[in-house]
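Interim report to the steering committee. The following record documents the input for DUF2383 domain-containing protein (151 residues).
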Amino acid sequence: MAHTNEDHIKLVNGLVEITIDSADGYEEAAKDAESSRFKTLFQARAQERRGIVSDLQAEVRRLGGTPDDDGSILAAAHRVFLNVRDALTKGDEAVVKTVEDGEDHIKAKYEKALGDVDIQPETRRAIEEAYAKVKAGHDQMRDIKHAQQAS
């Protein structure tokens, strides 16, 4: 059965929520990071995620829905990012690993959404554009983690 507009709105709003969670998580991580390199990186990533949220909210409006404007209180991504706090006592390497876990979670959510064959082309395009940015962030954190493990 083909998706209704409601289904599309729900799908995109789910991505809005998790992307807000990750932006919030990066803001928390930036506050707590010790090295200025990570503080700057996390702040930039939080801003980038806010931009993705705006794009996805615009898509929800285009579909005739009301975009979510806050994260999911109990989101797994947010819990992962809260673990950043604990990781901070263990140094930057632990922070990067924790953030990368959060990135794995959000990347999986986007991939699941893109695996849905019934998405209308405009909505798919909006999700794909958001995913490309999310994936770039994920890959950067993965590469930093691998570089730390190698040293």
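Residues 5-150 form a domain with the Ferritin fold (CATH 1.20.1260.10). The committee is asked to note this result when reviewing the revised timeline.
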